[in-house]
Amino acid sequence: MDTQALKGSWRQVAQSGDQVPLFFYSALFLMHPETRSLFPVSMAAQRDRLVNALGHVVSNVDRVNELVPFLQQLGRDHRKFSVVAQHYPAVGQALLATLEHFLGDLWTPALARDWTAAYGLVAQVMTEAAEESSATSPPWWEGEIILHEVRVPGIAVIRARLNYQYPFRPGQSASVSTALRPKLWRYYSIANAPRRDNTIDLHVRVVDGGTVSTALVHAAQRGDILKISAPVGDRLTLGSGPARELLLIAGGTGLAPLKSLVEQVAYEGPPRAVRLFVGARTSRELYDTEALAKLEADNPWLSVVPVVSRDAFYRGEHGYAVDVALKAWRDQDVYVCGSEEMVQGSVSRLLDAGVPPEHIRFDEFTTAGGREP
Fold it and tell me: Which cofactors go with this protein (predicted)?
C-alpha cells in the first residue's frame, strides 16, 4: 500500500471542499437507500464530520499506533447510530465512487487498489472494535431527566438517572441525544463522580446555532429520556500515580469535568490540596456558586476562586482564570477545561510561565458548549 499516494490523492480531493461530502452522501443514498435512515434529517453537521474523520485517517495512515485506537473508538462510537457490519461495504462503495469522481484522470487502477485495501483495513478495525464492545455494553444507556434547572440565561444543569449501571471515570465525557432532536448526538462532560443512585449531571450552555444544546436548555424537562453513549476520554482523568496537588482552571461550563475531579478526591481520597479557579465573563455567569461553596465548606483541602473578566462591579478576582491561577502555582498538576479558545490560550500562558508540559492536562476536543457547532 502506497501511503504517500493515499495522502496525495486525498489532498487533491479535499480541495473541492463541501462538494466532497455532498457527492459522497448523494452517492451513498442513491446506491443504498436503506442507509438514509441512519442519519438525521439535516446533514449539514454530518458533512463536516466525514471530511474531518477521513482527513485524520489519511494523515495518520503511516502511523498505525496512533490510527488504530482512533478507529477502534470510532467503531465503538458508531454503535449508537445503529451501524452494523453490513453497512461498511456500502460506505466503501460510495467512498471509492467519490474519490474517482474528484480525481478524474488521476484515479488509476493502482490507486484504486490502495484505497480499497486501506478502507478494508479501516472497516475491519472498526467492525472488530464494535463487536468486542457489544459483548460488554449496550450501544447507549437511557437516562430519565429528574432535575432540570436553568441556572442563568442560556445555561442549564441537568440530572439524569440511567437505566443500567454506568461505569465511568471522573473527567470523562459522553455523547448525548434527545428525542427533541432525533439522531443528533453531542458530547458533554459528566459533572460528578460516580454515585450509588446511578445519576449523572450535565452542564449545558446554549451554543449559537446549536440545535441539541438549545433543545436541552430550553425545551427539555423532567421525565424526558436522554440517550447516553459509553463514556470516553482520559485526558482529564486523574492519574494512577502519587496523589499530587491539583490546580484546576475552568472556563464556563468547562467546570463540569473539573468538578467531578473534586468530588472524586472528596469521595475516594487521598486528601490533597486542590485549588479550583472558575472563570466567567461576568458574575452572573457563575452558575454553580452555591454547590461549589458547599463543596468548599465540607472539604478544608479545597479552595474555590471565582474569576470574572468583564464585570467592573464584581468584588472578587478580576482577569482571566489562568492568570489568577498562575499566582497560586506551586508545582501542582494543572487541569484546564473550557472553550477551545480558552483552553488554547490558557495552555499557552501556562507554558510561557514555565509550567512543565507533563504537568498540564487538557482535552483538545472539549468545548464549553458540548462540542457542538
Answer: heme b
